[in-house]
Amino acid sequence: MLGRPSICASCLAGFRNVSRLQKQQLHQSKRSKSNQSKSNKSKSIAHSLPTNITKIIPFTDLQPTDIARYWDTIPPEASNLAYADKFFTPSRHSPVKLFSAAKFRTIPFDSTEPEVAFIGRSNVGKSSIINALVGQEVCWVSKHPGKTTEMNAFGIGGKKGGESKIVLLDMPGYGKASRTEWGIEIMKYLQQRKQLRRTYLLIDSLHGIKDNDQEILSLLRRYGISHQIILSKVDRVLAGRLNKGLKLFSRGYEVRSSRLNHLQKMLKKMEPILQPPDSRVDGPGALGEILTCTSAAKVSQESQNCLGVSNIRWSILKATGFDGSIETGASREMSPIQSAEDRPTLSTPVQ
Ligand SMILES: Nc1nc2c(ncn2[C@@H]2O[C@H](COP(=O)(O)OP(=O)(O)OP(=O)(O)O)[C@@H](O)[C@H]2O)c(=O)[nH]1
Ligand SMILES: [Mg+2]
């Protein structure tokens, strides 16, 4: 991170309070606190798959480059994605709820596990994507904005008797139903947290980059916070309102390729916004890789994976050094770099 961490009033503009829903927030906050303290009592989280996944994007053969844009990085191979999925497979020791914190100063400061944080406007799908990533309903999700009111941390990759390997943080949203104090604490976390390796900024694929997203992007650049964009709810772009859209999407190659083309055009348009030309003036831009995902549609009947989730898992492993580039216990157990014979061919379905 660049410079000395400090919070200025303009930094918080993106997290502006919308007081219309404050009463509702207070109520939700109390309820969430009591629920969270209940869940803190049991360290390991009950095994259950997210229940909101009812639809299927019926193409198991979509490649990472069909649904994401890689211009500064190398797209993952099927073996990388399989490795990432294995890493995130739920077990008795993963995922584990580590803490909920309303204030930055109450977060345990001496942990050693690398962290990644998910930020974005209220209702953009931050909590849902964490549930999809870890394969369990560990976060509260709601159609009403402002559901997540604290910084919630979940450890993954833990083994019996061992610490988690990576920590995922679900953050409160900014914009609608947000509160100024959430913004203050999130900014403190983003600027000061030494364990933070990458911040994932979620953008709703139907709405695109809004003014308050732009403000947050400027903050991330100004403070040199490593960040990457994920377009959420991509099922809406590929299949519209799911039921009708899916039929269309499955009907033929033409519909399918025109939707995918449309998505690629959207991603390309975002490039200059995410990486302004002069990084010496504007600060370092986002990683040259935009991922997309949905937590509402699976890739196939057989798979438990939502579309795009494996790509995000691999990105998290890269951000935290668990992709095999740094030798760790986990990477020794199963190397993502396999021999030529073991490596799946390009026709292997990618999830
Ligand atoms: N169609 C579709 N809906 C989604 C997707 N992800 C989340 N949703 C819905 O969007 C709403 C908000 O999801 P959340 O995960 O609670 O969003 P959030 O960003 O955590 O919201 P806050 O905690 O309020 O900031 C819920 O009704 C979800 O079911 C998706 O990929 N596709
Ligand atoms: Mg949430």
UniProtKB/TrEMBL annotation:
- Leader sequence range is none
A single MF term (Gene Ontology): GTP binding
Q: Does the keyword S-adenosyl-L-methionine apply?
A: no
Q: Which Pfam families match?
A: MMR_HSR1
Domain called EngB-type G: residue spans:
112-276
Q: Which UniProt keywords apply?
A: GTP-binding, Hydrolase, Magnesium, Metal-binding, Nucleotide-binding
Q: Which family does it belong to?
A: Belongs to the TRAFAC class TrmE-Era-EngA-EngB-Septin-like GTPase superfamily. EngB GTPase family.
| NCBIfam families assigned | GTPase_YsxC
Q: Could you name the Gene Ontology cellular component terms for this entry?
A: mitochondrion
Return the Low complexity bias intervals. 34-43
UniProt keyword Nucleotide-binding present: yes
SUPFAM superfamilies this protein is in? P-loop containing nucleoside triphosphate hydrolases (SSF52540)
Q: What is this protein called?
A: GTP-binding protein 8
Q: What organism is this sequence from?
A: Talaromyces proteolyticus
Q: Which cofactor does it need?
A: Mg(2+)
Q: State the PANTHER family in the record.
A: GTP-BINDING PROTEIN 8 (PTHR46498:SF1)
Region called Disordered, residue ranges: 23-45, 327-351
